[in-house]
Amino acid sequence: MTADTKLTLAKLAELAGVSTSTASRALKDNPLIRKETRTKIQALAKEHNFSINAAASRLRTQKTNVIAVILNLIDNTEQSTTDPFLLKLVGELNQALNAKGYELLLSNSFMASDDWANYFIHSQRADGILVIGQGKTTEKIDRAAKSGVPIVVWGDTKTDAGYPIVGGNNFLGGYEATKYLLSQGAKRVLFLGDSEHAEMRERLRGFMQAHEEANIVPDFSHVGAIDITSKTAYQYMNDRIKANGLDFDGIVCVSDMVALGALKALKERYVGIPSDVGIVGYDDISLAELMHPALTTIRQNTQQAATLMVEQLLNQLENKPTENQVVETSLIVRRSTK
Q1: Helix or strand or coil: residue 286?
Q2: Does the pLDDT of residue 4 top 50, yes or no?
Q3: Which residues pair with 104 in a beta bridge?
Q4: What are phi and psi of 237, to 5 degrees?
Q5: Distance between the two ends of the chain, CA-based, in angstroms?
Q6: Predicted confidence (pLDDT) at residue 113 exceeds the cutoff of 80
Q7: Distances (CA, A) of 260 to 73, 231, 269, 285
Q8: Burial 120-153 (b: 16+ CB within 10 A, else e)
Q9: Under a CB-based contact definition with an 8 Å cutoff, are residues 286 and 232 in contact?
Q10: What is the per-residue pLDDT for 5?
């Protein structure tokens, strides 16, 4: 082959002794193609300075092999893309998508405005959408789903929706966290989190159920409706203690970041943890084990979550049935509780 002859995909496939589709998949490092074949074709492509024209490929196949992952952040929250749990789930989704031959396009609900279908799918930015978080309203998600785009949501699986939802057992998580504190002798347990979110609302229901079973009537003044950030939790605890003193002996938090803020406020006032107040977080981010004291928390299996979300999305792309999926949830006991 002369230097001025442009190598085509078909010619590359011929040189490798494979079909054009196999060569294309191998160049995209699709794991469905044997590793030896991928290595051979990629080496040939490098030798001949060959690369796929991505734009032409999209026009030809009408596929991008890209999946948009949207962090569904609402307007009145300070929760951001730096939230450790969100980043943990995004990382797991990236691995799960790569294993199926797809790339991840990370965005947020602000960038795409109100029309996710046009912004991501009809403009050929992506083939499907994975949403992390239902938020306080599912209006944008519902609109995208009604337009027929492939979409899967991380949220509360008890939500009645026209699209598959993958999520932890939020009721059980809230119940187990509260039950454990009560079993350790706590009598006045706070709940910190915004129950206008579907996931948090279920955790609050679990909180109430655990009290009912323990024959304790929960004080509704012990439900702190706060944003899902450490900063808000820290401020809330400061204000509450100034106003009421230490009128609680346990805290159930809807996230580890909320627990971190509460923990900081209490330690600054030399409140003993867990001798005076026991704290349970939620999510089991890597920081939870490094806190002092190490945080008792509810773990959600994010690797399983990512695998299930990708499976449900691919089912839609392949016109297969979909269904809600519940992720494993477990109580991890550490030193922030007795």
Answers
A1: helix
A2: no
A3: 67
A4: -65, -40
A5: 74
A6: no
A7: 21, 9, 15, 11
A8: bbeeebbbbbbbbbbbeebebbeebbeeebbbbb
A9: no
A10: 53
* Three-class secondary structure of residue 299 per DSSP: strand
265: left (phi over 0), alpha (psi -120 to 50) or beta: alpha
Contact 237, 268 (CB under 8 A): no
Enter the tokens of residue 172: 């059980």
- In the numeric block, which tokens belong to residue 324? 């809600």
d(CA 255, CA 91): 18
Closest among 240, 206, 244 to 225, alpha carbons compared: 240
**Does the pLDDT at position 3 exceed 50?**
no
- pLDDT tens column, 260-278: 999 999 999 999 999 999 9
Q: How far apart are CA 148 and CA 317, in angstroms?
A: 11
Q: What is the pLDDT of residues 20-54, one digit of tens each?
A: 888 888 887 788 888 899 999 889 888 888 776 55
CB neighbourhood size of 204 (10 A): 24
SS3 content of the chain, % helix, strand, coil (to 5): 45, 15, 40
- Core vs surface per residue 88-104: b (16+ CB within 10 A) or e: bbbebbbebbeebebeb
